[in-house]
Amino acid sequence: MKLNKIFKISLLVLIVVSVAVLIYGAVVGFESSDGQPVDLLLYWAYIMVGIAVASCILIGLIVSIKNDPKSLIRIGLVLAGAAVLCLISFLLAPGSPAVGYTGTEELTHTTLKLTDTILNLTYICGAGAILAIIIGEVRMAIANKK
CB within 8 A of 71, min separation 6: which ones? Predict the structure, then answer.
């Protein structure tokens, strides 16, 4: 019962802070010259996404451990696979200079390398998703013919 109360209070706090950030941005104006309201809104969005991802992972782990303790091995394998995928994306990233960049700040090699890593990871995951859709449809077609 207490856990349910903690969840409700946490949800209420997150809603109140979200509304406060939104009102602050509306009062100050999102088009202000310093860009502070937009930065605050983006940082709050990052925090909310982080909380959501962490909650999904933690709740998934708790439920998995409770239902089937051996499922931790599968979760570990999935995490290891994700780490290997990130490592491959990083190793394939050239870190080339940005083409057409007109900004005032100088981009470091680290920034360029990480940007290329994220692009490579996006390409690999996109291709994997398309491949999974095709393979899934072919498997369903074969299974329905039997």
Answer: 64, 65
Task: With cut-offs at 50, 70 and 90, classify the pLDDT of residue 27.
Answer: confident
**pLDDT tens-place string over residues 5-24:** 888 888 899 999 999 988 88
| Angstrom distance (rounded) from CA 45 to CA 145 | 47
Same domain for 144 and 128: yes
- Residue 117: Cβ within 10 Å count: 19
Residues 38 and 59 placed together within one structural domain of the fold = yes
**Which stretches of the chain are DSSP H helices?**
2-28, 36-67, 71-92, 109-145
87 or 6, which is more confident: 87
Q: Distance between CA 30 and CA 44 in Å, rounded? A: 14
